[in-house]
Amino acid sequence: MKHLLRAFLNDLGGNPNKKNALNETVLHAACQLNQNKSFSVQERKASCVQLLLYWKGVTLAGGQREKVDLSAQDKDGNTALHWAASKGLRRCTELLLAHGSPLFIENNDKLTPCDLAMRGSHHDIARLLESRMVFADNNDTVNEDEIIQEQDEVYSGLRSQDLQEAKDQLLVDTSDMLKIPLFTAEALLRNN
């Protein structure tokens, strides 16, 4: 997933601020989570969010480069932070906060990201958001060095971790498709 997003942003000149029919940006989609809440899925989502947050687009009139819009709201008024908080994506929430995502925007139901975290029983995220709402100034941002490492490189291929994830997924899919044990699927893939 990360390598496709990286290719979209860097090689194809994609703009993550474009919206779909539901008025969602790519950042909204990256912060959504279906029933699969495994740690690896959450980490892949966080990696995608991190790529999006470091995206630099065309040069604007003021000389600054376009960045991903953290205030973008979908048809229901939810920002990416609303989605990350409601789905229990703590790392995504931390990344969004570190980049200055607005805390006080209410969706169409008059709920903030903190309200949605509480509603979804994600109390650790709700506490994080609540403490930021109470104690942080509007200009205040979290020290990004504590959360993420700076990405200086622009890379558009499979990294070793991405390649390993793709191999592992192929192995599991082969095992499921042929209804054979994982070690047998691994032997089949290794010999072909």
UniProtKB/TrEMBL annotation:
SUPFAM superfamilies: Ankyrin repeat. ANK repeats lie at residues 76-108. It comes from Cryptolaemus montrouzieri. PROSITE patterns: ANK_REP_REGION, ANK_REPEAT. InterPro entries: Ankyrin_rpt (IPR002110), Ankyrin_rpt-contain_sf (IPR036770). Signal peptide: none annotated. Keywords: ANK repeat, Repeat. SMART domains: ANK (SM00248). This is Uncharacterized protein. It holds the Pfam family Ank_2.
